[in-house]
Design goal:
Structural class: alpha+beta
Distance between the termini: 109 Å
Helix content: 10-25%
Strand content: 25-35%
Radius of gyration: 32 Å
Largest sheet: 6 strands, antiparallel, barrel
């Protein structure tokens, strides 16, 4: 054998030895850590570690006891070793155990079974005027509701039943009943409909929205897009949402629970429940510009409103007559206040109101109400509204560095704002043949426009510059180079422009849904 052949032979032997070593070592590792992580032979694997249906493939938790295998009320078993010794950053926290469920069973099955008998589908029939032929057209819209009393009281949104000529309620199981609105409150967007006595099992259990936390489960049920008794699941993603511009308008008093449980058109009025199936909110709105975000009225706020609706059919709220704003860092600095100071800045006081009579002035900073600190504008407005007309109320204010103590007798809010709010909802007359309404008007809500800004066309004069170009339901969002956010923007711009002497561009969203278009109008 020459030198070249001898070298090739040795190389081949070396490769063979390496291959044998790798194979043997790999099999040992596979046998010890994959097929049997406990180190015992497969024949000694216990029933809890191996299945008769197949080999005991590696499960890192196979040799540990389940974390929640105890009956409800008993502490869950811990895996071997002292976990707290290894992870003691947050310390130990006592939690109630999750309810015991069957193997592979969703915990939401029980929630769905508890909620479904309480949830109803609402069909509303009404009429609107046809702009072209000036005649009434039958309209239908839908929503959801939840039974809260065995006497047949169904809780829903005001905007669901607003303007209804007839209300048809469908119960789970298919039974249909006629509903009658016995009380409604536009400012909280709540209404109560009576459908007659129902069985006790249909009455929803109400929870406590104050104890809900961000991250808790949130389960919605309703009839999105007419798909009856649809269950969607998410979490509470925020609390205390206010000042929302909501498609079709929004309530004056806002303290929404925000959730990523899917809420769509048709869900309005249905329940938002916790993991125990208790109602913690009434679904009220979707954010048309942000998919996956919905809002519900907290059930604790609902209780206050519904008690008055059942008693009188409407809600009476206390009224001061002022314009509050946030006490931001710049205002604090300008007023010489400490950075940690909490309160509400008073922008202005209306003439002839209890606020004026009690001596409140623009520029005052309210720091306490009835001896309790005021944290923000929402807190301030809600606390005033929870008082009844005629109630006495005291405010502690800071005025030019001095503390002042002022007393007030509250008026009835409805006497001050009803006529004013109705006057603001519709434009004064036609401009180039167009009459518009803001998106909080009943017309906009009935047509369920999806945009949250602009003004909606409610009539077009025959033979005008707009005839044949715009129609009922179109939403105008820009006039010339100026954006239209509200009815006030429209009024200001059309008053400023007057009758244009040349064509003017107008941007609108047909039917208030989808993409926008431009048209040119000329008198």
């Amino acid at each position: 054998m020459n030198e070249h052949n001898w070298t090739s032979f040795l190389n081949g032997v070396a490769v063979l030895l390496i291959a044998v070593g790798l194979f043997g070592g790999g099999w040992i590792l596979f046998d010890r850590f994959i097929m049997d992580p406990t180190g015992d032979s497969l024949e000694q694997t216990s029933d809890s570690q191996a299945s008769s249906d197949g080999p005991a493939w590696y499960n890192p938790f196979a040799d540990k006891e389940p974390l929640a295998d105890s009956v409800e009320g008993e502490a869950a078993s811990q895996p071997p070793g002292d976990i707290e010794d290894d992870f003691d950053i947050g310390g130990s926290i006592d939690r109630d155990p999750l309810p015991v469920i069957g193997k592979f069973e969703s915990p939401f099955v029980a929630v769905a079974e508890r909620l479904k008998p309480s949830v109803v589908n609402i069909l509303v029939e009404g009429r609107r005027m046809d702009d072209q032929f000036h005649r009434g057209i039958l309209t239908q819209s839908g929503g959801s509701g939840v039974i809260v009393d065995a006497r047949g009281y169904v809780l829903t949104n005001h905007h669901v039943v607003d303007g209804a000529d007839a209300i048809i309620i469908t119960l789970s199981g298919g039974e249909e009943r006629t509903g009658e609105v016995i009380g409604a409150d536009p400012e909280s967007d709540l209404a109560v409909v009576n459908i007659g006595p129902v069985e006790d099992y249909r009455v929803a259990e109400l929870g406590d929205s104050d104890v809900c936390r961000i991250g808790d489960w949130a389960i919605a049920m309703g009839s999105p897009f007419g798909l009856d008794w649809t269950l969607t699941v998410g979490v509470i993603s925020a609390k205390g949402r206010t000042d929302l511009r909501i498609a079709g308008g929004g309530p004056v008093y806002q303290d929404f629970i925000q959730t990523d449980a899917s809420i769509n058109f048709g869900n309005s009025g249905g329940p938002l429940a916790d993991i125990h199936g208790k109602v913690i909110g009434i679904n009220a709105a979707v954010n048309a510009s942000a998919n996956g975000i919905g809002f519900a009225i907290p059930i604790n706020m609902v209780r206050d409103v519904v008690s008055q609706l059942l008693e009188t059919g409407y809600v009476r709220r206390g009224y001061l007559g002022l314009m509050p704003s946030t006490l931001d860092p710049l205002k604090k600095e300008a007023l010489g206040l400490d950075e940690s100071m909490e309160g509400v800045f008073i922008e202005s006081v209306s003439v002839g109101t209890p606020a004026e009579a009690g001596g409140l002035q623009g520029g005052d900073v309210v720091v306490e109400m009835d001896g309790v600190p005021v944290s923000d504008v929402t807190d301030f407005r809600m606390r005033i509204a929870r008082n009844a007309p005629g109630d006495q109320l005291s405010l502690t204010v800071i005025r030019r560095g001095d503390l002042k103590y002022l007393d007030f007798t509250l008026a009835d809010r409805s006497e001050y704002v009803t006529s004013a709010s109705e006057g603001r909802r519709i434009s004064n007359g036609h401009w180039l043949g167009i009459e518009v309404a803001d998106l909080t008007s009943p017309e906009a809500r009935q047509l369920q426009v999806e945009t949250d800004h602009g003004v909606m066309v409610i009539s077009v004069e025959p033979g005008s510059a707009s005839d044949g170009k715009l129609k009922l339901g179109d939403v105008i969002v820009q006039l010339g180079n100026n954006a239209i956010e509200t009815l006030e923007d429209w009024r200001h711009l059309t008053d400023e422009i007057g009758t244009p002497d040349r064509a003017i561009l107008l941007k609108y969203i047909p039917n208030g849904r989808g993409g926008s278009r431009f048209i040119a109008l000329k008198p």
